[in-house]
Design a protein that fits this description.
Elements lengths: L5 H19 L4 H38 L4 H4 L2 H25 L3 E3 L6 E5 L6 H9 L10 H15 L9 H4 L10 H5 L5 H6 L4 H29 L14 E5 L3 E3 L3 E8 L10 E6 L2 E3 L6 E7 L4 E13 L4 E14 L2 E6 L4 E3 L4 E8 L7 E6 L4 E4 L5 E4 L10 E7 L2 E10 L5 E3 L6 E3 L1 H6 L4 E3 L10 E10 L6 E6 L5 H7 L7 E10 L7 E2 L3 E5 L1
Parallel strand pairs: 4-10, 12-18, 20-26
Antiparallel strand pairs: 1-2, 3-5, 5-8, 6-7, 6-9, 9-10, 11-13, 13-16, 14-17, 15-16, 17-18, 19-21, 22-23, 22-24, 24-25, 24-26
């Protein structure tokens, strides 16, 4: 019987290490797509292991019936199967919990069916809370990740129960479980789970758990293979029957003119037998296949839009001396570089406030963008902490003048024009009123005037600097007080306290100052009738 061992497992480990290292460098969304492709390959590989382990178990039972001395090996089949299944189910439950806590799967609005995409694929809080911070027992700080580590190590240790003592040393290289306790200690991390799961995106952690399941199933397969040999089953008797073609692209979205590159390979048992021959081709063009069964496909791109190619794998089975063919279609998208300059709030810049602007460049590293301002308005632009930009301007533009935001990005030079205006005039208010009738009690409770910017989307405020307060009683002469500032002075307060029914109060020559103003603004007058 033939079951894949170290070459396949080593390839999976290396692929995940490379993707994790690239993620640590904050590489863009293409890496998340690569994690998805890797995860799909692991899931397919796990299914293939399940389908191959079952016939091996049956073969061992049949061999034990023919020779009683083989029964002790057959008695080990069910315990290793149950132990592997329990650990696989435990790991799957953690994985399902992460997916559920991060929002589940994305619902396709057109089909109303759930897709394979995750709502919270970039969520790092869930992984940290469940795997690192969530205590196993009351009073402990180690998260469920440490419990997982303990169970994996226990499973690895228990394998010795299924292998004869004289064979255990030679068998150890077949145990796929590998817990690295040196790296996190050397890095000064608090624990193994801190090193592997803290602030890791959900989409990056899911393949880790599928890999652990793969390690468990691969180890179970290795034990069954060992037991099979002990009962006289030759390695040529069983060959995997489940294969799938996988393409792992370096980027699933490329810019026109850039090459599209993907590693194409078979999951499950490609390369597991030195006599197995694998041939790969893309759209009929043969690929060179390395020892691990991987062929690299590279093509220059020139036409924008979705692109499709067909991968074909032909596998020669040394047992049946037959060649099986597997075919699968893959897609990627070719885009063009472009720059977009979009005001976040309004298509105009206002003096005295921060004007947010979003600048995006498809197919270009945002760190290479060159951004500046020209034209009228005396503007300047700087990058904000959240990656957007902020524009500040000083003077209004004339009839035929504009302020210009200029972006240079890898050969593209894009300019967008904006008008520059002063902040609109605010509305003076007393209490909640702009004038009219007001009860004597409410009128006497007010402490002064304030200015309100109505329907203005920016965070800005204008200050009342002065006004003239005039009291005209029903019978008698008018009294005038000049008030500096928006809050009543003592003289204005004394005049307000004299208010009686039928009095009229005029607020005249109301002056205010808004951000960016060099002169005071005249807001007119307000008239109140005292009830």
């Amino acid at each position: 019987m033939s079951i894949p061992k170290e070459p396949r497992q080593l390839m999976i480990n290396i692929m995940y290490l490379v993707l994790t290292a690239m993620l640590a460098l904050n590489v863009s969304a293409e890496i998340f797509n690569a994690f998805k492709v890797l995860d799909q390959g692991l899931v397919q590989s796990n299914l293939a292991l399940d389908s191959s382990n079952q016939p091996m178990q049956q073969a061992i039972y049949e061999a034990a019936k023919a020779k009683p001395s083989f029964q002790k090996y057959a008695d080990r089949v069910e315990p290793i199967r149950k132990e592997a299944q329990l650990l696989s189910d435990y790991i799957s439950a953690i994985k399902d919990s992460l997916i559920a806590e991060s929002g589940g799967f994305v619902l396709d609005p057109d089909t109303q069916q759930y897709t394979e995409a995750l709502v919270g694929e970039k969520n790092t809080d869930v992984t940290t809370r469940i795997l690192v911070d969530n205590p196993i027992e009351e009073g402990l700080v180690d998260g469920i990740g440490e419990e997982l580590r303990t169970k994996l190590l226990a499973f690895k240790s228990n394998i010795a129960n299924y292998i004869d003592k004289e064979d255990i040393d030679n068998f150890r290289p077949n145990i796929a479980i590998n817990i690295d306790d040196s790296t996190w200690k050397e890095a000064g991390k608090a624990s193994w789970s801190h090193m592997n799961f803290e602030y890791m995106p959900v989409q990056a952690v899911i393949p880790i758990f599928n890999k652990y399941i793969n390690d468990v199933k691969s180890t179970e397969a290795a034990v069954l293979n060992y037991l099979g040999k002990k009962v006289g089953i030759g390695k040529e008797d069983v060959v995997f029957g489940d294969f799938t073609v996988v393409a792992a692209p370096k980027k699933s979205y490329v810019i026109k003119g850039e090459p599209y590159t993907a590693d194409v390979f078979l999951t499950a048992s490609a390369g597991s037998d030195s006599r197995t021959k694998v041939e790969l081709s893309i759209n009929g063009r043969p690929l060179q296949v390395d020892r691990s069964g991987i062929g690299q496909y590279t093509i220059n791109t020139s036409t924008p839009g979705p692109q499709t190619y067909t991968a074909v794998a032909k596998v020669y089975n040394p047992v049946t001396e037959k060649t099986s063919t597997y075919k699968k279609n893959f897609t990627y998208e070719v885009g063009e570089r472009s720059v977009a300059i979009s005001p976040t709030k309004m298509n105009v810049f206002y003096i005295g406030v921060d004007n947010p602007v979003e600048i995006s460049a498809a197919g270009t590293n945002s760190n290479t963008l060159q951004v500046n301002m020209s034209g009228a308005g005396g503007g300047s632009i700087k990058k904000a902490a959240n990656g957007s930009f902020v524009v500040n301007v000083k003077t209004p533009t004339g009839k035929n003048e504009t302020a210009k935001v200029n972006v240079i990005a890898e050969g593209m030079n894009v300019t967008k024009e904006f008008r520059v205006k002063r902040i609109p005039d605010p509305i003076p208010q007393l209490s909640k009123s702009k004038g009219g009738s007001m009860s004597r009690g409410e009128f006497k409770l007010q402490k002064g005037l304030f200015a309100v910017l109505e329907n203005f989307d920016f965070e800005a405020s204008c200050d009342i600097k002065e006004f003239i307060l005039v009291r005209v009683p029903k019978r008698g002469d008018a009294t005038v007080v000049i008030n500096k500032g928006g809050r009543y002075t003592s003289e204005a307060t004394a005049l307000v306290q004299k208010a009686k029914t039928s009095d009229k109060f005029y607020f005249e020559d109301i002056k205010c100052k808004c951000p960016g103003d060099t002169r005071l603004r005249d807001l007119g007058l307000m008239l109140f009738h005292i009830k």
